[in-house]
Amino acid sequence: MSINSFGHMLRMTTFGESHGIALGCVLDGCPPLIPITEAEIQVFMDKRRPGQSRFTTQRREPDAVKILSGVFDDDSGQQVTTGTPICLMIENVDQRSKDYGDIKDSFRPGHADFTYLEKYGIRDYRGGGRQSARETAARVAAGAIARKIVPGMRVRGALVQVGVHEISRDNWDWDEIDRNPFFCPDAEMVETWTTYLDDIRKSGSSCGAVIEIVVDGVAAGLGAPVYGKLDQDLASALMSINAVKGVEIGAGFSAANLTGIENADEMRMEDGKPTFLSNHAGGILGGISTGQEIITRFVVKPTSSILTPRKSVDKFGNETDVVTKGRHDPCVGIRAVPIGEAMAALVVADHYLLHRGQMG
Amino acid sequence: MSINSFGHMLRMTTFGESHGIALGCVLDGCPPLIPITEAEIQVFMDKRRPGQSRFTTQRREPDAVKILSGVFDDDSGQQVTTGTPICLMIENVDQRSKDYGDIKDSFRPGHADFTYLEKYGIRDYRGGGRQSARETAARVAAGAIARKIVPGMRVRGALVQVGVHEISRDNWDWDEIDRNPFFCPDAEMVETWTTYLDDIRKSGSSCGAVIEIVVDGVAAGLGAPVYGKLDQDLASALMSINAVKGVEIGAGFSAANLTGIENADEMRMEDGKPTFLSNHAGGILGGISTGQEIITRFVVKPTSSILTPRKSVDKFGNETDVVTKGRHDPCVGIRAVPIGEAMAALVVADHYLLHRGQMG
Amino acid sequence: MSINSFGHMLRMTTFGESHGIALGCVLDGCPPLIPITEAEIQVFMDKRRPGQSRFTTQRREPDAVKILSGVFDDDSGQQVTTGTPICLMIENVDQRSKDYGDIKDSFRPGHADFTYLEKYGIRDYRGGGRQSARETAARVAAGAIARKIVPGMRVRGALVQVGVHEISRDNWDWDEIDRNPFFCPDAEMVETWTTYLDDIRKSGSSCGAVIEIVVDGVAAGLGAPVYGKLDQDLASALMSINAVKGVEIGAGFSAANLTGIENADEMRMEDGKPTFLSNHAGGILGGISTGQEIITRFVVKPTSSILTPRKSVDKFGNETDVVTKGRHDPCVGIRAVPIGEAMAALVVADHYLLHRGQMG
Amino acid sequence: MSINSFGHMLRMTTFGESHGIALGCVLDGCPPLIPITEAEIQVFMDKRRPGQSRFTTQRREPDAVKILSGVFDDDSGQQVTTGTPICLMIENVDQRSKDYGDIKDSFRPGHADFTYLEKYGIRDYRGGGRQSARETAARVAAGAIARKIVPGMRVRGALVQVGVHEISRDNWDWDEIDRNPFFCPDAEMVETWTTYLDDIRKSGSSCGAVIEIVVDGVAAGLGAPVYGKLDQDLASALMSINAVKGVEIGAGFSAANLTGIENADEMRMEDGKPTFLSNHAGGILGGISTGQEIITRFVVKPTSSILTPRKSVDKFGNETDVVTKGRHDPCVGIRAVPIGEAMAALVVADHYLLHRGQMG
Q1: Which of C288, C263, C295 shows the shortest CA–CA distance to C278?
Q2: pTM of the predicted model, to two decimals?
Q3: Which residue, B131, C339, D68, D257, is most buried by CB atoms nearer than 10 A?
Q4: Which of D256, D317, D319 is facing C210, going by the closest CB pair?
Q5: Is the Cβ pair D84, A129 closer than 8 Å?
Q6: What pLDDT, in 10s, does the model give residues B60-98?
Q7: Residues D353, B222, B14, CA angle at the centre, nearest 5°?
Q8: What is the ipTM of this complex?
Q9: CA of B218 vs chain C CAs: smallest distance (Å)
Q10: Quick one: CA torsion of D317, D323, D324, D326, rounded to 10 degrees?
Q11: 3-class SS at D111?
Q12: Contact flag A80-D24 (C-beta cutoff 8 Å)
């Protein structure tokens, strides 16, 4: 019952604070003989890494991942997993020894300063300590390994809404994702978001976002009733990401407006195989994968660290105003894309192993 | 890693199929000396019980709960929990020995017939077997006990949207809930839903719904970073309910449209205590309760069992049309209200014990 | 973290008290399509059942097991597991509504009366409540299913010591086990134990025993470092049985007296396969099976319920003498044989599934 | 279900191989505000550290522990735990880049070389990789923190048997422990063991040992029926240590020879409190602490790495002889004392938190 662990058979335990010595995770239960290098993991680290564009925080963290354990050379000299726990460590480099005087006793609205202090009687105020989204660097590292566990699986994510601006699904082009700083699949939306975010940033505010994760190449049959459902575990995984306030699968909340006639994903035989004619279910029925694309979305609230003063109190009971100085993301949702991908990869890989265990 | 269990310290393991001998659960980790009777649990069972109005299935199940273990008389002769596992059993009475010939080999669209067979190579087709929402009867029973664990906690739920019709929050009145067959808090909406659902039913279709659960009387400090967050566990709990396709906390998906300035829940001192001026967070920051109302919503898709034929295939690869005969809910979302309440009660009670363990 | 559950992937959760309505377990994670009937399980129940000879308690319990869930007919009409949780229930029949006046407030030496009351502030004094070894009936039922999960696995147990009398290993004959009321593999020892136990019983005392469990037909490679070792899980499983005070693997405590030269299990090739020349390790190296026989022993303390008065106190702080009236086993170790077998079967089956999950 | 984790609420996950970059653990669930420094932990590391006398391996490892996360300064400037996961890292310094040519393909008798390769299809042969007892350095570090969680708890261990020589309990003196290189509580035995071990070492062999762990200052009521018993978890904890082949509680295996009359720990009132007149139970009844000393023993087999050649095979199917060159402990049991202490501390602290959670 580790409350800093996630997963059934493929189990990630993370550690570390924003401005501590290092953060990272132990990934346990990974099968042996999977080729993996630090360089392969680093590709995904770099997607999440701050300072990639003017729309993400300018904190200078190389986020260089180091594999401390769990790998060894196979007979051909290639580095592979050994089936033992893989510790992935990321050292914190840019721990500015700044003066925290102004925020160390105040509760930043929207942050967990108040709740951590209420719970623990102490909080590491340096960059938010454990509540910081820096913890997600460890998830991205673990997710890079998870991606290699399920043969044929592909995990992709995209930003589909920034503030009030939603993409058009007719324009969806996965290739577009890497051509803009937003993981945006709709080329026509990039300009709008750019202007919108520049304005938001200049106004000292921030905005929310919606991310969609699509997993394909997954066979039917993954998932475990009743409390280890694939959609349940995706919901848990994504809701555990900082600032996430909602998760939906397939049609999601719009299913409320559909009738049973509309919502039914009908079936026909195609090339001798049962095939679904639509995917309102998001690739999951009864908690088990249908073999279609697994589709999930999650919403990230507007960054709580903003340049505009907000009313608050401090731990001594004084009323105060809090304003965030320095570098912050105007839309943390952008960097949530690789994090969501990592969590989805971990969930599906976990269920792949679980299914293999129960079913042979 | 029981895949049919839920909870960290307060752990519910459910068993049973729709048309088997009995279903139920084992609730483990419940503190001792909590007064509990079958009659107290039955109150909540009756809220979920089918056949309460023409808007829920007419299956005749008394859903009488029996406590098989874990209780004993205290010195005063009152029946209380003993700290040992509580087994709650509900016998299936209305197991019509009907002919399943027409559906035993076909995959009902929207149901998990296809995925169960893909996963297990066998499925109990009698009423859906384990995939049936009858499993949730056990949750409601366990939830009735969970409600008594946290002193001062109150868990209430309401239906806030049926199909395209959403209630007005200005009309919200908790007392209204028990006066209509919909758990609807908006008296003015009852008529609309009645007509709408009658039409839906007559047309051989069904509709979706959104349920809101509100928990109050919970102190600040419950919840456990990073993979045992209160909101994460609520998401997991609610998404594990049959037909649920989305979960949100506080502002939820609408947070995407807010700016950081709007979304910040500012604080002031009131009666000498830190107080929040709004609750976009839904009572949870950084996965830990703020002491405010905990607010969560989930969406239930339209009932998949409808009288209108839908295209499907059978397990032999033949194309076929599937139509549901007999008794079914036109809107399963209605009966999801007491289920959502039960799951929320279980999650908060679980974190209450977890917090007490770590913090003393 | 269910404290009344055991197992990683194959997870048994037990419930029930000695004199409650019923006891049983939920077995979760069992693969589908395994043929199982109540009659098959009953065979093992009957081995543990009281009243089989004058050396076990005369409590009249049929211990009839009922499968409440998790099974269904396959296409050929044979009853098989479905992959969903299997609830096994045993109703308590012989719950004599006797007067507990004399023991309900006193602490029986050697029993957990004192510790349960200290822990929970309440205890079910009827037959020991949850601390009673009746709980092990559920384990035996679950074990009967576990035996069928690992192809080729055979689990056998024997009583190797009763009080001061140990069997001779030269006389070991597995066929002998079913020919005497002691599960004794040494025909020459039966007479001695008979006389010894009759004397013990007449003197109003009881004696301890040592049980050996041998599992064969298990491939090399099962077990999981570092905290899911096969020997570790066997130790946990066996130590969880009532009255057990020690567990050893292979050479066990006698390994202290051996030198490294003697203790090494040397290897040679035989029929083209690596073969061990001895088995001091008990079939487990580094927590992983070697492919040899898995050998474990556990000691059961003398029955604490004896006819000879022992000094004690009651919950009001009065000094008193406690004597057990009525029916009890002079050597509870006898009935521990089928229980130990069941636990070993559960552990190995669990690791079989776990290994299959991680390794494919 | 992390197979490299241990504990219910206080959960340790270890990582690392003998000759990898680093090893360590993440300790999750530790309460906040416990003062802890690296120096305090180092005291216990040094007890386990190799090279302390000629009776332990001469590998030169400083075993310097580094706290990577989970601590922060409280208001008074003292470093305390924060309630978040504590990562403890020990860098491997003495990783001789020696030629493993002779052992990389052979199976060392008594080691897990064969079983790791059978399981994983790969093994890290450098110093035994993950199967090495170096992993226990992480346990000792975590145990140092666990010791501080339960107020009043004291955990002490002693070596009570080396090869055929057992101490006399009449000579037991805890102060003696630190005055000899064996953690021996019997001053008169030190000379005998010295000579015995010198002989064993010179003869190119090794010997086994028995360790006793005594925990006092623990209140009655800790432990959790039925599968989280205190003695069960101690058995699991100790059996998970490398080379351990048996565990016993209180009277242990000698209980087989006792009658129920002898074995009963009678009770009387003393100073107004219920008191036991003996402790055959080893401080645990029904899996729950009695408030007496908790007493457990475990046996460590003779070191498998010996200078005398033993018959083996290699992974290509060739028969070969294996001899261990270089530095090794003639009796690994010596260094197992601080490891056993650490595991016992972790188990009791875990149950302390668990009990507090369930009982308030």
Answers
A1: C263
A2: 0.97
A3: C339
A4: D256
A5: yes
A6: 788 999 999 999 999 999 999 999 999 999 999 876 656
A7: 75
A8: 0.97
A9: 23
A10: -130
A11: coil
A12: no
